[in-house]
Every structure is written in C-alpha cells, then in structure tokens.
Amino acid sequence: MGTPEFAVPSLLVLLESGVQVVGVVTQPDRPVGRKRVLTPTPVKAAAEQYGIPVLQPERLRRTESVEALKALQPDLIVTAAYGQILSKAVLDIPKLGCINIHASLLPQYRGGAPIHYAVMNGNAVTGVTIMYMAEGLDTGDMISRVEVPIEDTDTTGSMFDKLSQAGAQLLKETLPELIAGRVQAVAQNDSEAVYSPNISREQELIDWNQPALTIWNKVRGLNPRPGAYTLWNGDVLKIWACAKPEPNDASSKQARQAAGTVVAVSEAGVQIETGDGLLNLTELQPAGKKAMDAGQFARGGQLTAGTVLG
C-alpha cells in the first residue's frame, strides 16, 4: 500500500526479494496540472509495469474495499505513504500483520508530514522507522530504524529522496527477519511523541519577525511543496531558497529596520530584515511567473530597497 514516489523503491524491493506481491493498493487517479489531466499515482504506474493487480478504493474502510483485500489473501501488508488510515478490519487480515515504513525516528513526527517538520525545525538527523501498524496514528511497536543526516543543502525534496531509498534498504534488511519470526518489536514511549500534521496554508506564510535561521529552515522545509511565501503589493511572492544566515553576521550589527524591509536587491540576492538580522533570498517566484534566481529577479527592477514584504 503506497501512493507517491516515496513508496516506489519499497515496492521494487519487495519484487526483488522473491516474495509474491499479490496486489497493490493506492489512492485513486487524480487530476494533475493546469489542464487537470487524470493521472495515476507513481505506485500504480510502477505496479502496472510488473502486471500486479491494483486496487484504488476511495475509502479503504468501506466493506467492499475490505472484502477485496481479503480476497487477495495476503500474509503481510506493507504500507509506505499510502494516505489512508487502516481500520481494524484491515489490520486483522494478514497473519504476519501490517507494517509501515514511516519517514521519521518514531515516536518523533507521527503523522502525515514528518519530513517537512524535521527540516523546518532544523533537525540535524531524521530517519526511517519500520513499525507494526496499530489503530492509533503511527503508534505501533517499532521493528527497525535507520538514521539519515539532514545537511545544510537539503530541502524536504532531497530528504524525501534520501529517506525513500533508506526506507527501501531498511525493508530489504528487515523483511527476512520478520518472515522468520525473529524480530523483537519495541513499544513507543507515548510521552515522547511529537506530531506532524499536514502543512496548513497559514504555516506557509513567512513571519519576518522570526529569526533568520528559523525562516531559512522554513523555506527549505517547504521546498518543493507547498512553498513558503510572503506578500508583495498584495500578491503572493514565493520564496524557494535563501542563503544560510551566519550566526554572527556583521550585517546584523548595522542599524536595524523593521522586519520584512528589503535592504538591498542585487545579483547576489534580495537582502531582507528579519527578527534578528539580514537574510539573503536567492530564488523567488512572483505571482504568475516562473521561479527565478536572484540575478534574474534583480534585473526585473520592480522590487527596490525600502519595500516592506508580508
């Protein structure tokens, strides 16, 4: 069970491992792009390449969906970023249980956006946990885990790719032990749980009163989706990248202006005042236009020093 590109490497690992993949469950096809073209999920596309039966229930909890799963007679269900909660009726189907490949070091970042929050919060390390699924949200016992560092150059997009591969490799290592009955699952400490709900529109808006480092983490944590933004003349201005602020940048000692004030616009970037110093924006996207680097943006000549964003 999986939907986005994140889940594809894990499906391929199952196919390469010699187990029989009796079916794939993924979200229904959705309209994509400006032309709203009905598009299959990446997992469906991969499954069809290998001739695997695909189920796409709108609601997995419905009786007919549960019966369709039972008809496949799975010994084990593996989920990775599927996008729907499994009911007890589904969890009870396979004799080896249901396991989930979750992109965090549980119990940290339970929920639907663990990669976003790990980057936005400035964590140096995240990882993947394989766990038995339970009725709660990512509350099941942990089977195995692997740590993956978050570099300064990483965005949620790059971590998505890294964790996808790490999860597939962890599944490859864990699967034989699980099938042989040799795994020793460990209960999560619920008192240490941290949740990562889906990103809201309000979270995408940059608050220039925050420290520069906090904003830098937000920008890379919301790249490539959904994107951080500010307001410029009432229109959305997306901020896709900025330079990591130096902790003792001399510019922060200069005369301070109001947070959100543009201090300078050049080929090197758009310097803007934050809650504790300057931040250099290096990739921006005005409303109705494509993303552009700071040089392209500066040559447009529309944003000038003294403008207040937000």
From TrEMBL:
Residues 198-300 form the Formyl transferase C-terminal domain. Belongs to the Fmt family. InterPro entries: Fmt, Formyl_trans_C, Formyl_trans_C_sf, Formyl_transf_N, Formyl_transf_N_sf, Formyl_transferase-like_C_sf, GART_AS, Met-tRNA-FMT_C. It catalyses: L-methionyl-tRNA(fMet) + (6R)-10-formyltetrahydrofolate = N-formyl-L-methionyl-tRNA(fMet) + (6S)-5,6,7,8-tetrahydrofolate + H(+). Attaches a formyl group to the free amino group of methionyl-tRNA(fMet). The formyl group appears to play a dual role in the initiator identity of N-formylmethionyl-tRNA by promoting its recognition by IF2 and preventing the misappropriation of this tRNA by the elongation apparatus. CDD domains: FMT_core_Met-tRNA-FMT_N, Met_tRNA_FMT_C. SUPFAM superfamilies: FMT C-terminal domain-like (SSF50486), Formyltransferase (SSF53328). Keywords: Protein biosynthesis, Transferase. The keyword Protein biosynthesis applies. (6S)-5,6,7,8-tetrahydrofolate binds at residues 104-107. Residues 18-174 form the Formyl transferase N-terminal domain. GO terms for molecular function: methionyl-tRNA formyltransferase activity. NCBIfam families: fmt. PROSITE patterns: GART. Gene3D superfamilies: Formyl transferase, C-terminal domain, Formyl transferase, N-terminal domain. The keyword Protein biosynthesis applies. It comes from Paenibacillus foliorum. This is Methionyl-tRNA formyltransferase. Its EC number is 2.1.2.9. GO terms for cellular component: cytosol. Pfam families: Formyl_trans_C (PF02911), Formyl_trans_N (PF00551).
